[in-house]
Structures are given as structure tokens and as C-alpha cells.
Design a protein that fits this description.
Two copies of one chain form a homodimer.
Chain A: E1 3-8, E2 12-18, E3 24-31, H1 38-56, E4 66-70, E5 73-75, E6 80-84, E7 89-93, H2 95-99, E8 107-111, H3 112-123, E9 132-137, E10 141-147, E11 150-152, H4 182-186, H5 188-201, H6 206-211, H7 220-228, H8 232-256, E12 260-264, H9 272-285, E13 293-296, H10 303-310
Parallel strand pairs in A: 1-4, 4-8, 9-12, 12-13
Antiparallel strand pairs in A: 1-2, 2-3, 5-6, 6-7, 9-10, 10-11
Helix pairs in contact in A: 3-10, 5-8, 7-8, 8-9
Chain lengths: 314, 314
């Protein structure tokens, strides 16, 4: 028995066919049709599912469910995307549109961070925990919360936004309109911005040398790699980053006292180089001086697809 | 049928005899025996209960339960206070000590903010809500969380500390060791400190005039009263305060999306003068642009006593 999970991002759309043990047996990726009408988007994903199924020799009507996750707010009852700014989706009917093409299959819709949290809870880093938080750290910061062993979608069903807790109210302006949200100080974008500034200010730095003549682009990974290699400018950026991230973790943990906090997204691939100093700082700063676990998320880029495919099982 | 609720504070100990409808029928207050041995403290509260009962002509053995709440962390299993800094209690046996004097009555122990939250949930401002947060704003800031209609004591049973979410990581040093916790920027102490500075800097201000010759002490209430009366210096302090408080509310609400946030403690008595601008700011700043309720707590100083007396009923 197979399910479809679709992870819709502002850059890519990923479609995965997922088996009963929550393994992705087929994975296809296409570009998100930026600036195109919504009907074009629907046509593309319908086609994507059909072609992928043909290749696998699965009858579309045999899928148990189709799950779709989007980076935005959704209305469960109506099956609509309320707002997904990166997709320029505002009050679009997702389930209804899909149902006209797949009449016999249940279609589910979820926020992408919630889908990832669900996947991590069932088959990833949050398995077995009752109270847990996932931060997914990329261009921005999303995340999800597990309470009582279940996905918590906020007290009024609007979702949860751990990336928009404020940790520096005089800090950088956030897309949400506030200053110093966790997203502004702990996202990959913060590392990139610091890296770009370092190129201008410190031509002796490794960040400058690696990117000179555009050999490499400034990424969060590049800054962290330079720090790993002992570059002082990059180290300084990295330790400021780890400190800010520790404040984000502590602030959230002082409120919820979770058993575990998982970090996903590109940043989490920095491994123990990141997690070891982070754990030390968190232990020092936490109100409850207990070493709750801080771990990398496990499903990486597949979390959204797996979580979306899971929606019909819950 | 009556229950005893004891609210132990760093300044006062309050003992209340509470009836079946959660009304306090008798209330006694004594000073906390600062710097005295623990046995003196126990002797004092045992005596307090006995005298109060004699006056009411209630046999001590007739009480349904004795509930005690303290400003600190507790170990439910052992019935001990782990740390209550203001009381200088560190790993003291509370339930055992009480049991030697009241052999036939169940004795319960809880953190004071949790007790207050429980009281507000059952007979106060949080009645009927499933997801709610209480901030109790005094010298410091404590608070409690309701999830799924029940008191949430943290995912690892250490409690919750909404006052120690960080909103300004370059802000004032907090007793917990971090900077810019909600407690440092939204407590009564912040208002007092600003008021005291205003006296030195602005001798034309109403705060100065009211306190000259020590006619009145600088309190949070005095600063707010001066703002109500149109004093510009006090208004400036007050609006900075409301702004900081709005960030605290928003930060917490962006994570939990609660139905209601209640504010207790002395500050909440400022009424609509505080709540109206606060609600406006929160609406502007919240990620979910929904007007979740922001209300004053209802039980005021009695919340701890009523909540402590309730412990046996849960």
C-alpha cells in the first residue's frame, strides 16, 4: 500500500511515493512555477503524480492518500491555504482542486513544519517523546511542537511559530514586522549576511579567499566550514550564532520544559561542531539546570514528504 | 467540608480556610520568619492553622486537606521544596514535616504560580479555556500554562517559567543569570527602577513631586497613577512598559497560540488604562493576527490560597 507526499516549497516541489514502513520508494522534484497562475501549479503537480505513478506501474486510484504540505497557514475545514507568502498563495482551494483530478483518493493538507514534526515524531528524532520541539532552520525558521505525544497545532488551531519568539527586541527587522525574532538571529540567512559582511571587512579571512572571484557562494555551510578550519573571522561569527541559538533554545525550554529539542534544516548538518558548544551554553543558561536533549533532526529534506504522506494515517 | 490553603511568600504567609464553593471563609496573615531555622517556620504555620481552626470552631482533623504553595521548585514524589530562593529553602521536607503534626489529613505541595493558575482555571479568569497562559506580575514574574484544559507542569515536570523567556538578550541581568528575561523588563521592579531614576533626572515630574520628602514610596502603582494623571515622564515610562509587556505576550502567543492570556499581580489592577493599549500593540505584533483574549486575572492575592486548597480536589 502506497501513499503520496508532496512538499511544496518556494523553490522546489518534491513528490514522494511512500510505502507502509514510511520509506520513500520514489522521489521526483520539479521547480515551483513562480509567478504562474494557480491552475498551472495544480496542472503541474497532477501531472507529476501521474507520471511518477506510471513509471512505478502503480494505478493512481490505488494510492491510500495524497498529502500536501505548504510553507504557510492552512484552513483544515475548508482545505484551503490561507497564506503561503513564498508561494504567493492566498486563500487558494487546495483539496478541492486536487479532488477534481483524484476523485477516489483522500487528500490532506498541512503546514510543512507540522508535517516535518509529525514525521520526526513517528519515524525520526522525536520518536517516543511526549513533549518535544522541532526547529527547522533554513532561510527562515519554522518548527513544530509535540505535547502529550501528539502534534500540537496551537490552542486556536492557527499553528505554532517557534521562529517568531522574540529574543532581541532591538534586533534586526523580521518579515513578520517585529524585531529580533529567533528567525532573524538563528536562520541560515543570518550566517550568510555575516559572511557577506566579513568578505567586505576582512579580506584576510578564509571566507573572503574561498569566495573570491565567485569560486564559491557565501552559504551558512561555507561560514561554518571556515570556522571548522580555524578561520578566526568565521569562528567569531559561528560562536555568535551558537550563542544566539542557545538563547532561542533556552527561551523555548524555559516555557515548555521539553524532553528534547531537535534542530533540522541545513544547519543541523554541522554535527557535533555545532551541537557540543550549543549544549554547553544551553545547560549554563537554562532555568531548569537539567540536560534535556538537544539533537539533530533525522529525516533531513525528506521530513516534509514523509510527514505529508503520513497525514492520512493519523 | 473545609480545606486549608497556605500561600508561603518571602514577606508574608497567608492561611485561608476554603469552603466547598472555593470561597475563603477565614484568612490569616503572618510575617515569614526570615533567617530563622526551618523548624521555626513549621512551628509557626502549624500554630497558625490550629489557632485559626479554634477561632472557627473547626476540629483540625475535620479538614479535607491542607495545601501549601511556595515560590520555588518542588519535588512532588518526595514532597520537598527543591529551591525557593526568597524563602532560603533548599531541599526541605515540607509534606513530611507537616504530616508529623497533622497525621490524619492529606497534605499537598505545589509551586505558587501553578496553584494560582489552577485557581484561575477553576474559579477565575481562565475558566472554560483549554489553552491559556497566566503571567503573575509582581517583584518578579511567575506564571502557569493550561494545555488541554489542564495545568501543564512542563514536559519533564520541572514546571514552566514564562517569566524567563528572553525578549532582549542584551537587556538587564536577570536573577537566573541571563539577560533580558521577561521578568527584567515587565515586572513591577522595572517600573520602580524607572520611577527611581526619573526622580533623579526629572525634578519637574509628578513622580518626583509625589515622593519628595518621602511622602510616598516609588511603586509600580505610583508610576502608573502619575501616567494616568498625564505626567509626561511617567507616561513615557508606562508606554515603554506596555510595549515590553506586549513583546512578552506576543513571544509566548506566537509559540502557543493560546485562547487567552491573563495577567495577575499588582500591575493588572491598572485596568483598561493598561489593557487597552496592550491589546492594540499585541494585535499589531502577533504572527497570527487574531485577537486572542488578554484579560486581568480575577482572584488577585487569593489565587495562591484558593489554588493550594484545591490541590486535594484534583
Amino acid at each position: 500500500m502506497f501513499r503520496i507526499g508532496l512538499d511544496i516549497g518556494g523553490t522546489n516541489i518534491v513528490s514522494g511515493v511512500v510505502d507502509n514502513s514510511n520509506k520513500i520508494i520514489s522521489r521526483r522534484q520539479i521547480l515551483f512555477p513562480k509567478g504562474q497562475p494557480y491552475s498551472v501549479f495544480i496542472g503541474l503537480i497532477v501531472n507529476l503524480i501521474k507520471e511518477q505513478s506510471k513509471e512505478l506501474r502503480i494505478q493512481v486510484s490505488d494510492y491510500k492518500s495524497i498529502g500536501i504540505c505548504v510553507p504557510g497557514s492552512i484552513n483544515r475545514e475548508k482545505g484551503t491555504v490561507i497564506n503561503a507568502y513564498n508561494l504567493e498563495f492566498h486563500n487558494v482551494p487546495m483539496i478541492e482542486a486536487m479532488k477534481t483530478h483524484f476523485t477516489d483518493i483522500p487528500v490532506f493538507l498541512e503546514n510543512d513544519a507540522n508535517a516535518a514534526t509529525l514525521a520526526e515524531l513517528n519515524v525520526g528524532a522525536l520518536r517516543g517523546y511526549k513533549t518535544a520541539v522541532l526547529f527547522t532552520i533554513g532561510t527562515g525558521i519554522g518548527g513544530g511542537i509535540i505535547l502529550g505525544g501528539k502534534l500540537f497545532n496551537g490552542g486556536m488551531d492557527h499553528g505554532v511559530e517557534p521562529g517568531h519568539m522574540i529574543i532581541d527586541h532591538n534586533g534586526p527587522l523580521c518579515t513578520c514586522g517585529n524585531r529580533g525574532c529567533i528567525e532573524t538571529l538563528c536562520s541560515g540567512s543570518w550566517l550568510i549576511k555575516q559572511g557577506q559582511e566579513a568578505i567586505v571587512k576582512y579580506p584576510q579571512s578564509r571566507i573572503y579567499r574561498k569566495t573570491q572571484g565567485n569560486r564559491e557562494q557565501v552559504t551558512g555551510k561555507l561560514v561554518i566550514d571556515c570556522a571548522k578550519e580555524g578561520d578566526e573571522v568565521a569562528e567569531d561569527i559561528f560562536y555568535r550564532y551558537v550563542n544566539q541559538l542557545s538563547l532561542a533554545v533556552v527561551s523555548c525550554a524555559n516555557l515548555l520544559d521539553p524532553e528534547v529539542i531537535a534542530l533540522g534544516g541545513g544547519i543541523s548538518k554541522a554535527g557535533e561542531f555545532l551541537f557540543q558548544p550549543l549544549r554547553k551554553l544551553v545547560r549554563e543558561k537554562s532555568f531548569f539546570r537539567f540536560p534535556y536533549k538537544i539533537v539533530p533532526a533525522e529525516l533531513e529534506n525528506d521530513a516534509g514528504v514523509i510527514g505529508a504522506a503520513m497525514l492520512g494515517m493519523i
